[in-house]
Structure formats: C-alpha cells, structure tokens
Amino acid sequence: MKAPSPLDDASLPNSIPELEAQMALLEEERRACEADVRRLCETERPDEGICFAQEIHQARQRKLQLEVQKELRRVRINRLRLDANSVF
After folding, report:
1. Does 39 map to a domain?
2. Closest Cα to residue 70, out of 18, 35, 1, 24?
3. Which residue range is the domain that position 71 belongs to?
4. What is the pLDDT of residues 3-17, one digit of tens each?
5. Does 7 map to a domain?
C-alpha cells in the first residue's frame, strides 16, 4: 500500500487518529526503503561490475522524503493537541 504524500502542511488532515495512521504507513514504507538499501549494498560486487549506486541513492532519497512527511504529521498532531488544550 502506498503512503499518502502531501507536500505541504495545509493538505494534512485535522484528525489525530488519521494522522497517526498515515505516520504508521510512512514508517512502514521507510523501513522497506532501509531494507532495500541494505539488500542492494549487500548484493553489490564492484569488482565484478555489479553496482546499484543509482538505486541505492533513490531509495535513500525516498527514505528521507518519508521521514520529512512523517515529521510534518508529528508537528500537526502536536499543534492540534496544543490548540485543544488552549481552548479550555
């Protein structure tokens, strides 16, 4: 399953449970990217001409994107909790 990928804070939901669910999906995909990088690094054989530099780079870039998206959701959750507490 593909994780949602909004690029800005305004497109994020205002529901903490929905944000937490999205964070779980993002974390799952981030772990898959880590596993891909590990697998690609382990199967590289530079002396035999078997290199996966581009694939490794793309997986690392995707992992960083997922970390940023997850952080955006964490910040939104904190803001929603702060707003809920300041109302009372």
Report:
1. yes
2. 24
3. 16-77
4. 544 455 567 888 999
5. no
Q: Residue 84 domain-assigned?
A: no
Evaluate whether 36 touches 61 at the Cβ level (below 8 Å): no
pTM for the model:
0.80
Q: Give tens-digit pLDDT for 23-76.
A: 999 999 999 999 999 999 999 999 999 999 999 999 999 999 999 999 999 999
- Confirm if 23 and 73 have CB atoms less than 8 A apart: yes
Residue with tokens 């596993």: 35
As for how many domains the chain has, the answer is 1
7, 21, 34, 46, 78 from 73: Cα distances, Å: 11, 10, 20, 40, 9
Q: Is there a contact between 66 and 22 (Cβ–Cβ < 8 Å)?
A: no
Domain contains 1: no
Burial class (CB in 10 A: 0-12, 13-18, 19+), 22: buried
